[in-house]
């Protein structure tokens, strides 16, 4: 895992909070494979090749799945927790819609939600938890636990541990179903020390110190390369991004 630590600018002596922060500042949340017709494989060697060797990003199953392996390598106990995202009118996503991590039975870590905490949350606390990216609270919801960001529910977590292979069907659904929001268009997003930058096939949105700016783009491939180092070209025939 030394190459992984180098990828995120951390060391084997880094704290969990530092590892979490460095990961979010180094590895983008992105769905480009979905728009290249490349099937995501939820197996550690494939994820390692993509995220560490090829210096790509991914979405929750990939990012948290690989981060769990790093933490285990460093001596942490990690459980994979399944969650359902909570949308408008408290509409729940499908089962195993999201993957988050319970570390050492104490910390909720999540480097794969797109925009959430910079640091892990205290799993045992039910009080407000102040983070550079917002105010968070964990709320018991029957047998589950809901994660709130600035008072708005993000997702509902199951408490029982899962295996990475259990997320394969929903991962495939997110890549193929017309209803999946990952199918609406290619995007990549990366946390910044004071905000976030997000690139889609139409816009660049940057938030810093609470100030948001947005600009249109004409060449998505150039934008992905400039801001994330992702080497892509766009097919003139289909408008689908293809990896070089």
Largest sheet, order of strands side by side?
5-4-3-2-9-8-7-6
Distance between the termini: 27 Å
Main sheet attributes: strand count, strand direction, barrel closure = 8 strands, antiparallel
Quantity of strands, as a count: 15
Catalogue the unreliable spans: 234-244
Protein name: N-hydroxyarylamine O-acetyltransferase
Pfam families: Acetyltransf_2
Family: Belongs to the arylamine N-acetyltransferase family.
Question: Keyphrases for this structure?
Answer:
eight-stranded antiparallel β-sheet; five-stranded antiparallel β-sheet; 6 helices; disordered C terminus; alpha+beta; 244 residues
Quick structural gist:
The protein has helices spanning 2-8, 16-26, 44-53, 60-73, 168-176, 220-228; strands at 29-30, 78-85, 98-103, 107-109, 121-122, 129-131, 134-141, 144-149, 152-162, 187-192, 195-200, 203-208, 211-216, 232-234, 241-243.
Tell me what the structure shows.
- With 244 residues, the protein is of the alpha+beta class.
- The chain has helices spanning 2-8, 16-26, 44-53, 60-73, 168-176, 220-228, and strands at residues 29-30, 78-85, 98-103, 107-109, 121-122, 129-131, 134-141, 144-149, 152-162, 187-192, 195-200, 203-208, 211-216, 232-234, 241-243.
- It is globular and about 45 Å long.
- The two termini are 27 Å apart.
- Mean pLDDT is 92; it is low at 234-244.
């Amino acid at each position: 895992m030394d190459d992984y630590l180098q990828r995120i600018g951390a060391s084997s002596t880094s704290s969990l909070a530092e590892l979490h922060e460095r990961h979010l500042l180094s590895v983008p949340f992105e769905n480009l494979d979905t728009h290249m017709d490349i099937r995501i494989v939820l197996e550690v060697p494939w994820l390692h090749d993509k995220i560490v060797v090829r210096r790509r990003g991914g979405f929750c199953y990939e990012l948290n799945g690989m981060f769990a392996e790093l933490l285990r390598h460093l001596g942490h106990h990690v459980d994979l927790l399944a969650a359902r995202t909570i949308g408008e009118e408290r509409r729940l996503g499908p089962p195993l819609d999201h993957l988050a991590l319970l570390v050492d039975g104490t910390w909720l870590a999540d480097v794969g939600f797109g925009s959430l905490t910079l640091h892990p949350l205290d799993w045992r606390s039910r009080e407000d938890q102040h983070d550079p990216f917002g105010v968070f609270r964990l709320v018991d919801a029957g047998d589950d636990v809901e994660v709130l960001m600035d008072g708005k529910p993000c997702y509902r977590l199951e408490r029982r541990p899962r295996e990475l292979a259990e997320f394969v069907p929903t991962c495939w659904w997110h890549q193929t179903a017309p209803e999946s929001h990952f199918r609406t268009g290619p995007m990549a997003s990366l946390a910044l020390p004071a905000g976030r930058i997000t690139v889609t096939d139409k816009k660049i949105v940057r938030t810093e110190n609470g100030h948001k700016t947005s600009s249109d783009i004409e060449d998505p491939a150039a934008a992905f390369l400039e801001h994330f180092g992702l080497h892509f070209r766009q097919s003139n025939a289909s408008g689908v991004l293809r990896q070089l």
